[in-house]
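Case study.
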Amino acid sequence: MTALNRAGWRPEMNVAGGADDNVTFTGNRALMLEEPLIFEIGGTGTTGVDFDEAAPAADLGSLMRSEPIGLPGLSESETVRHYTRLSRQNYAIDLGLFPLGSCTMKHNPRLNEKVARMPGFADVHPLQPQETVQGAYAVIHELAEWLVTLTGMHSVAMSPKAGAHGELCGILCIKAALEARGEDRRVILVPESAHGTNPATAAFAGFTVEDIPATEEGRVNLEALKARLGPDVAGVMITNPNTCGLFERDMKAISDAVHAAGGYVYCDGANFNAIVGRVRPGDLGVDAMHINLHKTFSTPHGGGGPGSGPVVLSEALAPFAPLPFVTQQGQAFRLIEEESAGEDHPETFGRMTAFHGQMGMFTRALAYILSHGADGLKQVAEDAVLNANYVLRSLTDVLDAPFAASGPCMHEALFSDKGLAEGFSTLDIAKGLIDEGYHPMTVYFPLVVHGAMLVEPTETESKAVLDQFIGALRSIALRAKNGDPALKSAPHFAPRARLDETLAARKPVLAWEGAR
Amino acid sequence: MRYLPLTTDDRAAMLATIGASSIDELFVDVPAAARLDGPIAGLPMQASELAVERHMATLSRRNRAAGDGPFFLGAGAYRHHVPASVDHLIQRGEFLTAYTPYQPEIAQGTLQMLFEFQSQVARLLGTDVANASMYDGSTACWEAIVMARRVTKRAKALLSTGLHPHYRSVARTMAKYTGDVLVDGDPALEAGTDWAALAASIDKETSCVVVQYPDILGRIDDMTTLAEACQTAGALLIAVVTEPVALGLIKSPGEMGADIVVGEGQSLGVGLQFGGPYVGLFACKTKYVRQMPGRLCGETVDANDKRGFVLTLSTREQHIRREKATSNICTNSGLCALAFSIHMTLLGEAGLRRLAAINHGRAKAAAAELAKIPGVSVLNDRFFNEFTLLLPTAARPVVHKLAEKDILGGVSLGRLYPDNTGLENGLVVAVTETVTEGNIAAFATALKEVLA
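After joint prediction, the assembly is written out as follows.
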């Protein structure tokens, strides 16, 4: 086995000179366990799966695999241990507060996992005859009804696979609508504070992206926006609540101005958690908005997906929605695919993905929504906003909050690095939080604030948890203001110290390079 | 409500700290006209776990689960046995409820897993490198076409008629808006692929040729000659694999010269799930890595010289490059990639080869049995675990009649190509290790009755 701990204690070392408290032979430190790669511990002849029969002979001539593939196997017991040990090197919402701004790391109810694994949902093929999957269509339809009602919109496209895919869906609807009007508008306006996916999506769909300036209080500058509107502007992409954690007060006026100039309003719904059940985007003139089911509706993030990004649409954009989708006729549900689109949905812009979307996320999200109901969801928004404001107002004496005077924040509290000691940065505060047992907040985003720290506690944290977090962040902020050198090398107690990202990018090692 | 820990007293104390008299004061920036005072009308109120579970179970029972009887569907989603430990491990909260590993010091579990996943995928597909996953095979396929445009600075993609029609449809949708030119069409009911014709039609404007292997009709072919033709013309060969188990038995696309190999990883670890979430595989030659979309995990060291892993080469990505990014993709399919990786680790090379051989053997047995039915023949001369049956009548009504007999007997070409009556007698049949001899016999009996 490869020694991961190259500097580890070895019997030949002089004990007095070689071993300090942190050095062990294995590199392990009690419950903090090192784990080699499967390529270092597995063998290509090993398998953890038993089969009922021998491999029958095959004859596919020159297409037969003749060379080794180089895929290591492990027995079942080794496999369970490998991944269990790896899992313990991860922070997770199950372990504690995970205040990543704009990411909405809330509790993931286990009922949702149980429901998603019911055989009628988990073990169903997307192309089964429609009469054998009526329950699956019913789930899609029921969730769609909820999303439409909660947002006050006309309809919803369910198939987008994640938030950015949903953005693309909305932007393509806008593009299709403009084409139907015979207009060639090329520009999408995006605030500087937007998520990177917004400009990337608009560019991916062939639009030119221009910035919308912000006011000093951290909101869209309505007058500047109005001045830029014209016959070349296809629409705007606005995040509301925005990434500074503020509600865009002028949203309705923005929408009215954009509509008057012939454009459409895309709303990035990443922060819908702050207003779910309290405010309907449809009442603010929005034409399209994606909903990250993995944020607002608690489907697990899974270490980076899968997401799910249904897009609610206004009446103006609904005719262009992608295929496929579910409709109800009496007691029966029907899937509208390419086949009948000619009669049922002639203006669709087409298909965005194979099959029908993230069914496994739909079942989880529906279970979550039904659990909360209309009253519970309203409470979700209120508690999320209350928790964020509590964090904001509890820390303004030690951390600079650039928009604290702009009114209450919504679901997230934004701080800057102003006032830290020379040589100390947001990164040091983030790494210090790791040692205190927390996942750091979102850092260096939004770009409009220097050294931004964006804290989103979510509604599933108790006051006691927040009080402890506030205390921890306060102590680290003070250490950073006082220039405590130990903070510069944090984290000290994590499975790894700061990692060399420059080396990783300069000499990329992206796969195991041992023999195949 | 069971997910909300704040008490009434907590809320009052917190409002006092904030200096607000009521929660409404925190929503003061919402225009009054848009502020809702009570719960949205017409929607149900909160419900207990028992009540929700009961409701969802009722809906679940309105579906015929694949495991409830004979099942032969494929066409881009395959039913394989997933070892119990896979689902157990992906439900560990440290994997399930973690975020994208932006703080590598406390995300080494996810990062090391992704590095292992990338290595497994690259080896399986026969390429140098793979990314940390895409949404699914269909979106990975489109991203590969766009990547080929970036690499070659040409915009004409030739799509094999054997490409999954949904993948083709996704590409057509996107190409309408990006200016890419696609040359495509429906497949012909022939035993051979259209690859030789594709090789002949490559020209100076061609950015890439996209082939599926095995293809939508289950056909397999050698892509070496096509790869050479692409290379000569300065175009890229993109291979799409929707059934990765096949690569335990047949040569990988990378081995035969494909430049980019994308695929659907659902077969391993993920399950059917009515079409999603799945896991897109994306792999290529090292020289193109900086044009790749999506997240990449790389090896490095920490400040104490211990090996560790980080997300890397992110200057390609939207959160850094914004409108100049290689793709708008942000979320990948991490948990499904984990399921894929665990299943692959359990199998190992020896297990994968055996699983693949069993699949192929079972499919050959089924094809032989079904071909005995009068009027029925098998289109393919070579296939892995999926083949196309030619029926004496339109296959689509047959599928429904089979379903009435509780047999899910494949995907009709009428469902996949509703506008092409020339294909309507085709039925795509997949046979994996989960199919028993009894299932095959039941299918054959039922098909004979339906066709009689």
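Observations recorded in class. Chain B touches chain A through 207 residues (CB under 8 Å). The mean pLDDT of chain B is 96. We will return to this complex in the next lecture.
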